[in-house]
From TrEMBL:
GO molecular function, one term: tRNA (guanine(37)-N1)-methyltransferase activity
Keyword Coiled coil appears in the UniProt entry: no
Entry's Gene Ontology BP terms: tRNA N1-guanine methylation
Protein's recorded name: tRNA (guanine-N(1)-)-methyltransferase
Organism (species): freshwater metagenome
């Protein structure tokens, strides 16, 4: 999978080169490229934002700059992901769907967001006909300073679903069975007593039928408690 991310803070996305993703990149499973939006600004001050039409607080990121940055990245069969708190809520089924993509482009907005004509432009039929899809995505009901951290969340959730990226594909199969709701049962490892607290006896029984039932009940209780 190819991933491009466009941001005014390229250093913010540097952790993507570490750990699991660093390894996946050196193995050629994923290729992540970070782009500095400001390098596409053409005016003397390299400005990327301006005041909103209609007035109001904050600044809006300029369509021209985004267009220059995105045009070379948006090729046939690409999913453009615009990060915005107003987007569709990211979840595990969305991660599974993005994990099947060939090419993801992340547009990390700052300030009050990106001029909406960027979304409108790349949503036009000529792009649709080239299998270019535009998604506005949020990672939850709270407001971040920008889309960078949200892009990292999505990239981590998506890339670990790509075959070969995660060491243990069994845990992925288990997760996809839980795709809806997605809350796990509690886990324990040795020792069987820790600070006076024992591991639930059923887990030591070796009765896998009963263990599966107990785990399903526990996952259910957890899901209800966290609503
Ligand atoms: Cl994608 N962006 C911003 N700025 N805030 C958010 C978000 C995205 N998702 C949740 N909050």
């Amino acid at each position: 999978m190819k991933i491009d991310a466009v941001t005014i803070f390229p250093q913010y996305l540097e952790p993507l080169q570490l750990s699991l993703l660093g390894k996946a990149q050196s193995e050629g499973l994923v290729e992540i490229t970070i782009h500095d939006l400001r390098s596409f600004a053409t005016d003397n001050h390299h400005s990327v934002d301006d005041t909103p039409y209609g007035g109001g607080a904050g600044m809006v990121m300029k369509a021209q700059v985004w267009g220059e940055a995105l045009d070379p990245l948006i090729t046939p069969d690409t999913d453009l992901i615009i990060l915005t708190p107003a987007g569709k809520k990211f979840d595990q089924p969305m991660a599974q769907s993005f994990a099947r993509a060939r090419h993801l482009v992340f547009a990390c907005g700052r300030y009050e967001g990106i001029d909406d004509r960027v979304r409108m432009y790349y949503s036009q039929s000529e792009f649709m006909e080239q299998n270019i899809r535009v998604h506005e995505v949020s990672i939850g009901d709270y407001v971040l300073g920008g889309g960078e951290v949200a892009a990292m969340v999505i990239i981590e959730a998506v890339t670990r679903l790509i075959p070969g990226v995660l060491g243990n594909p069994e845990s992925i199969v288990e997760e996809s069975h839980m795709a809806e709701g997605f809350l796990e049962y509690p886990n324990f490892t040795k020792p069987s007593q820790w600070r006076g607290i024992p591991v639930p006896e059923i887990l030591l029984s070796g009765n896998h039928g009963e263990i599966d039932k107990w785990r399903a009940t526990q996952a259910d209780l957890r899901a209800k408690k966290n609503v």
